């Protein structure tokens, strides 16, 4: 049975990645034991973590100024780990959505937080480009893709390293080509576009660390993780292995620029249909629309039952909007086939024919 999986996270992964990682759970590389049964300090696993590190760097075009870490605690732990390691006095944040707001809530426990822009009074449907980053702050924090409302930053400030730029890329990492060297720290939990939940990729420019006077608990200290190559404690072996497979899949496809083209194509088809269709609307400013999470609403709430009935019987799953927002959200991450987007569009067209 063909399922069209629009889940926001954990979400769809490439079929061959799932197949290979499932196989490794049964029998890891012909060793007769499961990936779940190997030591995280074995040569086998050290090779996996080294290769995953290498692939992250190659796919993102990073140089050796950066360390790559695979940590636990989700992006949520990064909300406090970032200020713990980087904030002496003051940091600047963009409040572009629910997750950005959660990051701010943690940061204010560590010092002064300057909000350079908040989209809250416009229900986070817009992201300003007209903010100025003060030069005296410890770092600037932004969220590249706002998973719930479906907005995405298309450009990023350039500070030439005078102010470190920190970015939560949880829901659009590896989805497009950017100059990643303009960021000093990038973090992303794995379960949206990369792997299973329980692992967070942290990419950090080593020279921004060590400037904080206070003591940092070991697990919270990036420098300690760098020194221990992500195995200070037992890491999420399965999720790291699956990330390696996804990165191989990305390279086999041709890398981030190919994925970016595909993602732009998929999202454009869907936004075009929403704009054309009499029964639906999208509330996000056009220039800020996300290529990863496409939110839309019925203009007439009374049709909700009918629409839900229609897509659910066609084996579409995960289309319900976030519990805070309602409506619908199609998460169309890297692994989601164009065919699934086209199928959803057909359903929306059929719905329009029947009910408008
Ligand atoms: C999902 C998500 C998070 C939360 O990730 P956890 O791994 O659950 O902590 C944070 N930021 C963004 C942008 C997300 O999409």
Please explain how this structure is put together.
The protein has helices spanning 15-26, 43-60, 74-86, 98-107, 222-227, 237-253, 256-276, 304-312, 338-355; strands spanning 4-5, 66-71, 90-95, 112-118, 140-143, 145-146, 151-152, 165-168, 185-189, 200-205, 280-281, 293-298, 316-317, 328-331. With 356 residues, it is of the alpha/beta class. The chain folds into two domains: 15-253, Aspartate Aminotransferase, domain 2; 255-355, Aspartate Aminotransferase, domain 1. The strands form four sheets. The protein has a seven-stranded mixed β-sheet with strand order 2-10-9-8-5-3-4, sandwiched between helices. The mean pLDDT is 97. The chain binds pyridoxal-5'-phosphate. The site of pyridoxal-5'-phosphate has 12 residues, from helix 3.
Short description:
The chain has about 350 residues and is an alpha/beta fold. The protein contains nine helices and 14 strands. The protein has two domains: about 15-255, Type I PLP-dependent aspartate aminotransferase-like (Major domain) (Aspartate Aminotransferase, domain 2), CATH 3.40.640; about 255-355, Aspartate Aminotransferase, domain 1, CATH 3.90.1150.10.
Largest sheet: 7 strands, mixed
* Residue fraction in strands: 15-25%
Strand order of the largest sheet: 2-10-9-8-5-3-4
Number of domains: 2
Q: Quickly give the CATH architecture of the largest domain.
A: 3-Layer(aba) Sandwich
Unreliable stretches covering 5 or more consecutive residues: none
Shape: globular
Distance between the termini: 30 Å
Category by helix and strand content: alpha/beta
| Residues in helix, % | 25-40%
What is the gyration radius calculated from CA atoms?
21 Å
């Amino acid at each position: 049975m063909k399922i069209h999986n629009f889940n926001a996270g954990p979400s769809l992964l490439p079929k061959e990645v799932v197949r290979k990682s499932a196989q490794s759970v049964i029998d890891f590389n012909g060793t007769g034991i499961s990936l779940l049964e190997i030591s995280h300090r074995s040569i086998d696993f050290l090779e996996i973590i080294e290769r995953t590190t290498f692939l992250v760097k190659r796919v993102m075009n990073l140089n050796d100024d950066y360390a790559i870490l695979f940590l636990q605690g989700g992006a949520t732990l990064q909300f406090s780990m970032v200020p713990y390691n980087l904030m002496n006095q003051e940091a600047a944040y963009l409040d572009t959505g629910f997750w950005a707001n959660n990051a701010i809530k943690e940061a204010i426990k560590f010092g002064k937080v300057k909000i350079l822009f908040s989209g809250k009074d416009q229900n986070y449907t817009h992201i300003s480009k007209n903010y100025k980053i003060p030069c005296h702050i410890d770092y600037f924090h932004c969220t590249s893709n706002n998973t719930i409302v479906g907005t995405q930053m298309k450009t990023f400030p350039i500070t030439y390293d005078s102010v470190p730029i920190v970015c939560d890329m949880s829901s659009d990492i590896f989805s497009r080509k950017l100059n990643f060297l303009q960021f000093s720290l990038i973090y992303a939990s794995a379960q949206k576009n990369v792997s299973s939940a329980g692992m967070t990729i942290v990419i950090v420019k080593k020279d921004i660390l060590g400037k904080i006077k206070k003591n940092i608990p070991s697990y919270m200290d990036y420098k300690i993780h760098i020194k221990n190559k992500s195995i200070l404690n037992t890491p999420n072996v399965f999720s790291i292995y699956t990330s390696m497979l996804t990165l191989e899949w990305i390279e086999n496809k041709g890398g981030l620029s190919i994925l970016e083209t595909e993602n732009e194509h998929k999202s454009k088809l869907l936004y075009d249909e929403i704009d054309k269709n009499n029964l639906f609307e999208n509330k996000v400013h056009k220039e800020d629309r996300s290529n990863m999470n496409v939110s839309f609403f019925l203009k007439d709430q009374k049709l909700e039952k009918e629409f839900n009935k229609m897509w659910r019987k066609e084996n579409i799953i995960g289309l319900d909007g976030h519990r805070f927002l309602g409506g619908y959200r199609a998460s169309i991450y890297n692994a989601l086939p164009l065919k699934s987007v086209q199928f959803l569009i057909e359903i929306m067209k059929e719905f329009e024919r029947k009910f408008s």
